[in-house]
Specification:
Blueprint (H helix, E strand, L loop, with lengths): L18 H14 L4 E7 L1 H15 L3 E8 L16 H7 L4 H15 L6 H12 L13 H7 L13 E6 L8 H11 L5 E5 L12 H15 L14
Parallel strand pairs: 1-2, 2-3, 3-4
Length: 239
């Protein structure tokens, strides 16, 4: 995406989800760098957040050119893993489980969502995440579950119909129902240009595990929804 625009990254932490703070951070960044056009890429829950933030940024005069979602549910009904609805509860319980509890929770999380990895790699990845304080949904004392259950009610319909919507899903994703999520986004944003691309056999939202597949997918989606300007005159046919 940084071939089309200056790159920036904003994430959420174990302190919870605060849309207002994310909006302020993005607004500060675009003001300092004199940016007037924004592209979004959001994995899973981040796709929902991107839609809400995109609407807020449109209201202050920015152009939201494109929103690409990786494995993003359109509402809580698309979520196949019922545990996702209780993340806030887990966030309050897991920190008190101690080392063995977190080890077990991480092992379970890795094996439950291998994202195309072998069993050993998935287990090791899950355990590593369970002890990473900056990247561990298991210990979030957060409003993520609340936001998930409330979406799309808090979306105000402010995404312009010119904004392209890219959808990346593994049809076999067992965290999010890919077909239901695609239908949900089509219903929510019916007049926006859309393009879907399957990242098969990658599991749920795993660009860090399957970077080449996601890079190819993102390139295809970008070329379809936001083709780069031509840098040279096309060759004219003789006949």
């Amino acid at each position: 995406m940084n071939e089309r625009a200056p790159a920036s990254y904003i994430g959420y932490s174990n302190d919870g989800i605060d849309i207002a703070q994310l909006f302020i951070a993005i607004r500060r960044d675009v003001f300092e760098r004199k940016i007037d056009t924004v592209y979004f890429y959001g994995d899973s829950f981040g796709g929902m957040v991107s839609v809400v933030l995109g609407s807020l940024l449109t209201q202050i005069g920015l152009t939201v050119k494109l929103i690409v979602m990786g494995s993003s549910p359109s509402n809580v009904a698309d979520t196949l893993d019922p545990g996702k609805e209780y993340i806030s509860l887990a966030g309050q319980v897991v920190p008190y489980l101690g080392v063995l509890g977190r080890l077990g929770a991480g092992l379970w999380a890795g094996l439950a969502n291998p994202n195309g990895q072998g069993m050993y790699s998935a287990a090791r990845h899950g355990i590593a995440n369970s002890f990473d304080l900056n990247n561990n949904s298991l210990i979030l004392s957060t409003s993520q579950a609340t936001f998930l259950q409330a979406f799309p009610r808090q979306y105000d319909g402010g995404i312009p119909t010119s904004t392209g919507i890219g959808l990346l899903y593994d049809p076999e994703d067992f965290i999010v129902d890919a077909a239901a999520a695609t239908r949900g986004w089509e219903a929510l944003l019916p007049r926006n240009p859309r393009f879907s691309y399957n990242v098969s056999h990658t599991g749920h939202a795993s660009p860090e595990i399957n970077p080449e597949l996601y890079r190819t997918a993102l390139s295809v989606v970008l070329d379809q929804l936001d083709p780069p300007p031509m840098t040279s005159k096309p060759v004219q046919p003789i006949f």
